Amino acid sequence: ILNVEQSPQSLHVQEGDSTNFTCSFPSSNFYALHWYRWETAKSPEALFVMTLNGDEKKKGRISATLNTKEGYSYLYIKGSQPEDSATYLCAIPLGGSNYKLTFGKGTLLTVNP
Amino acid sequence: GAVVSQHPSWVICKSGTSVKIECRSLDFQATTMFWYRQFPKQSLMLMATSNEGSKATYEQGVEKDKFLINHASLTLSTLTVTSAHPEDSSFYICSAYGTADSNQPQHFGDGTRLSIL
After folding, report:
1. Sorting pLDDT into bands at 50, 70 and 90, what band is B30?
2. Contact flag B42-A105 (C-beta cutoff 8 Å)
3. Does the pLDDT value for residue A57 go beyond 80?
4. A76 touches chain B (CB under 8 A)
5. pLDDT value at position A1?
């Protein structure tokens, strides 16, 4: 992995379903990983900043895990609601900088009522 | 807290026009601001890093004479697209740090949709 990759590109789930998606990144020289939620016509909202291998963070029904050795992070949403519909972005510093972020293309989640 | 305001939200103008986009941190001092561009179905791409009181640092492939950045105060950075052409049509979004450290989240504006006719 030479870049930040997110999968799937898009996802449709029913209200009440739990779901998860993946962010993959280069495992060398890891510094931090960011997750953002971006709703249409709004600004991206920070969900988590994760720095430690094995870290798990939780915010309400949303949680994330981090594996820096194998270069991936999972974002989980439990009991999806229509208001969870958004694009979920992950980003890490790449290219020698510890503060300039490289973003994945995002996972577009649509939760159907 | 940590609100970033970006104006305008959308711009439609004729080819050859210069367009200025403002990015303001409303409730914190932003020592570092970033300007990104996003083309359809692509990721946010960093264009430049703006530090208060100093020249912006541009990413490879971004023309500094085309995209003028000014960060004259701790709460305001501006991006001017000079002599814009249709290929400059894109979504531009700014973000800000209080302290430039990726252990901290970036705070984003709402973005500007630029359409050049």
Report:
1. confident
2. yes
3. yes
4. no
5. 62
> What does the pLDDT read at residue B34?
95
CB-based contact A43 B32, cutoff 8 Å: no
CA neighbor of B32 nearest in space, from B8, B19, B21, B48: B48
Higher pLDDT, A78 or B104: A78
What is the pLDDT, as a whole number, of residue B100?
A: 66
Centroid of chain to Cα B46? 9
Integer CA distances (angstroms), A98 to A29, A35, A93, A94, B56, in order: 10, 16, 5, 7, 17
Of A51, A105, A106, the CB nearest to B103: A51
Q: Quick check: bond before A8 cis, omega within 30? A: yes
Mapped onto helix, strand or coil, the DSSP state of residue A83 is: helix
Q: CA end-to-end span of chain B, whole Å? A: 37
Find chain A residues with C-beta within 8 A of B102's C-beta.
Answer: 31-32, 34, 49, 92-93, 98-101
**Nearest CA to A102 among B47, B52, B98?**
B47
Average pLDDT over all residues of chain A: 94
Tokens 């208001």, residue located: A83
